[in-house]
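Example S7 (structure tokens).
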């Protein structure tokens, strides 16, 4: 979404661990953690970490309006980006791969860890809603920016959307608005077809 907003040409390489025809080996060659997304520029420079990629693109291409230009709102959007990746995304890592945090655990113990992380994730989205209230249509601007994109995507994982619809309907409605924005809707539809 950010690359489209920046009007940059790109080649999308599917490298997810859950797809059999995946370029996981090529991804690990440039990012040993195998993280998605990983951005490789034409000159071979590698940029990892979702927030870092969005911040880089927002600063490099200010005309794309990924980050607010005003320093005050921009600082809060940067804070929000880091909050999502450091807290929500981290909890999802435990939910998806509990064995990395509790090697040799019984299936019941892994499930208990997974459920605890899911509960924590729900709490974190509640804190996000309190700490980053939407002042206008989107965080920081009239068009969806970096924080809108990242939060909408990460909130789709690990059952968070169902929880938000029930417990944080105002935040759920913001995410729906972001997903149906004309420039972002095709990307969401491609990755999460109904």
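Recovered sequence:
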């Amino acid at each position: 979404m950010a690359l489209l907003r920046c009007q940059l040409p790109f080649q999308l390489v599917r490298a997810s661990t859950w797809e059999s025809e995946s370029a996981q080996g090529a991804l690990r060659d440039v990012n040993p953690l195998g993280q998605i997304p990983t951005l490789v520029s034409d000159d071979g420079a590698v940029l990892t970490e979702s927030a870092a990629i969005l911040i880089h693109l927002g600063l490099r291409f200010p005309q794309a309006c990924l980050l607010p230009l005003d320093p005050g709102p921009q600082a809060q959007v940067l804070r929000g980006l880091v909050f999502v990746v450091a807290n929500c995304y981290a909890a999802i890592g435990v939910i998806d791969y509990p064995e990395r945090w509790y090697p040799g655990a019984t299936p019941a113990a892994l499930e208990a860890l997974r459920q605890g992380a899911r509960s924590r994730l729900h709490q974190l989205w509640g804190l996000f809603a309190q700490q980053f209230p939407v002042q206008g249509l989107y965080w920081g601007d009239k068009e969806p920016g970096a924080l809108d994109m990242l939060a909408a995507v990460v909130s789709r994982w690990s059952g968070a959307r169902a929880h938000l619809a029930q417990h944080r309907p105002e935040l759920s409605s913001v995410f729906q608005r972001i997903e149906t924005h004309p420039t972002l809707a095709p990307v969401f539809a491609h990755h999460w077809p109904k």
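Notes on this example. The beta strands are 38-40, 46-48.
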